[in-house]
Amino acid sequence: MKAHPSINRGANQVASALLDWYDAHHRELPWRVPPRDLKLGVRPDPYCIWLSEVMLQQTTVEAVKSYFTAFVEQWPDVFALAAADNSDVMRAWAGLGYYSRARNLKACAETIATQYAGVFPETEEQLRSLPGIGPYTAAAIASIAFNRPAAVVDGNIERVISRLYAIATPLPAAKIEIKQRVTEILPFDRPGDFAQAMMDLGATICSPKRPKCMLCPIKEHCAALANGDPEIYPAKAAKKAKPLRQGAAFIAVRDDGAILLRTRPESGLLGGMSEPPTSDWNSRQDGATTIEAAPFAAEWRPAGAIRHVFTHFELALTVWRADIKELPAVPDAWWSPPEQIPGEALPTVMKKAIEAAIPGATKKRPDRKGTA
DNA sequence: TAGCCGTGGGT
DNA sequence: TACCCAAGGCT
């Protein structure tokens, strides 16, 4: 048999050992076709691979599972998703975070349906041109869905490779060298399984803290382990402190328990999601008087305070409540009845604010008549 | 290039 | 508690 096309023998040994480990120890995931089924000729559904990869961007596997299952059930293929209402997609995505992903997901589905006749392109270059698909996701879809030899580099693989070769250059500058190393050891017969094997290894063995090196299938090749301290890789630049922003949220409650909601602007923080009226989040440092930002005059009463940590700042919201009898006209807002509130496109921070004023209001609960 | 963009779980 | 981190993309 001809030698493997990889450049050096050590690289071949890494890929071979990793694939053997993957065959025996891979994770079972709702969107994954396991190696035993691939060998029987089962092909992954590109729609499911794409959907899962977008959901998994900066998001844990455990958080994604239930969302993925719900999405596939509600929208079984790219045509169904392309035909969906934007508001339904945002509601289904609520709680998963990074909401531009949901907007790009819908836009991508529409492009695939109309410009690609519902068939996903197979090359990295074509995939990369679609909304919400960057370098990582394009390579992941090309390799996992279409078994093309693409160099997949995510956070797991950055960690595995930087340890394997003891790369001292801090991220993100090290990404170029890391991608080159992945390209060198990429096995051309099973690129999809190789990418998933690297990610499983990073998630279960080559973890950020206290890696389980004794269980690692490629420990014999690991320069960081040989040097004595794998945990110091990957090197990263220092992080900046998060500023604190303050504001107020106004929970207007109708006689029947409905609350007033509005839609946030399409772009920016929590873009396109729903919320109770809020002040701006930098107007004053004293939350006690932000009542001036209320959407209309009423008997606003203090109803608590919440804090929420975003990626680049922390937010402290003073929550106000008013029980409304004569309904004021508020442009671009609507009254959401109690049974609809749990299904609204409410980000977690807004659910916290509502809960502060009306405990239990955002929780889904079984029908009382049916569970007596 | 670096800031913006969520959330929940682990330590 | 405070910090880190997760199958990143966009501007």
TrEMBL record:
EC class of the enzyme, as a word: hydrolase
Alphabetical list of Pfam families matching this protein: HHH (PF00633), HhH-GPD (PF00730), NUDIX_4 (PF14815)
Cofactor(s) in the UniProt record: [4Fe-4S] cluster
Keyword list, A-Z: 4Fe-4S, DNA damage, DNA repair, Glycosidase, Hydrolase, Iron, Iron-sulfur, Metal-binding
UniProt remark on cofactor binding: Binds 1 [4Fe-4S] cluster.
Function field: Adenine glycosylase active on G-A mispairs. MutY also corrects error-prone DNA synthesis past GO lesions which are due to the oxidatively damaged form of guanine: 7,8-dihydro-8-oxoguanine (8-oxo-dGTP).
Family: Belongs to the Nth/MutY family.
Record's protein name: Adenine DNA glycosylase
Organism, as annotated: Aquamicrobium zhengzhouense
Originating gene: mutY
